[in-house]
Design brief:
The protein has 160 residues and is mainly beta. 9% of the residues lie in helices and 43% in strands. A six-stranded antiparallel beta sheet has the order 3-4-5-2-1-6. A six-stranded mixed beta sheet has the order 10-9-8-7-12-11, with no helix packed on it. Strand 3 and strand 4 form a beta hairpin. The longest helix has 6 residues. The relative contact order is 0.15.
């Protein structure tokens, strides 16, 4: 039996104040995505409060009693099970669902696997590793990637 996949929604980037609050880097769309979950990391962190501060999201977890404990957790990723995320509308995707998928051309030629998804400001870009280890990038749009699911179909005219 395989373990359920987890998805990182945020990371602790530092302490905030002396009472155990932490500053978060949010990987989800916004803070409200985190509020949908009562706990993180398999129950290791129970969310008590979440607010927007001047330097981003500020959270309080029941298990973090003071600044010292908060500082020790810098870099800790906050995860939830993949199956706890809401379903998406047609044409949208979670990054975690694409990472590791096999990639093929429109003709069915093996192009490799998705190894990363980057966003440099103009939209998501898939990084694909060929079977020979070389890598290339493709913009994640319907022209370059007309379909995805069990595999990713790539129009090779768009390979960067």
């Amino acid at each position: 039996m395989t373990a359920p996949r987890s998805v990182t929604l945020a990371a602790i980037i530092g302490a905030h104040g002396v009472g155990g609050e932490v500053r978060l880097k949010i990987f989800a769309e916004d803070e409200t995505s985190l509020k949908a979950h009562a706990s993180f990391n398999g129950g290791a962190f129970t969310l008590k409060s979440l607010r927007h501060g001047s330097n981003g999201a500020i959270a309080r977890f029941a298990e973090i009693p003071d600044r010292t404990a908060a500082e020790r957790l810098r870099g800790t990723e906050l995860t939830v099970p993949r199956d706890s995320l809401p379903p998406l509308p047609e044409g949208e995707y979670y990054h975690t669902d694409l990472i590791g998928l096999p990639c093929v051309s429109g003709d069915g030629e093996d192009l490799g696997r998705v190894i990363a998804i980057e966003n440099f400001g103009a939209g998501d870009v898939l990084e694909i590793e060929h079977p020979n280890g070389k890598r290339f990038m493709v913009p994640m749009n319907l022209e370059a990637v007309p379909e995805w699911g069990e595999h990713v179909v790539i129009d090779t005219d768009f390979a960067v």
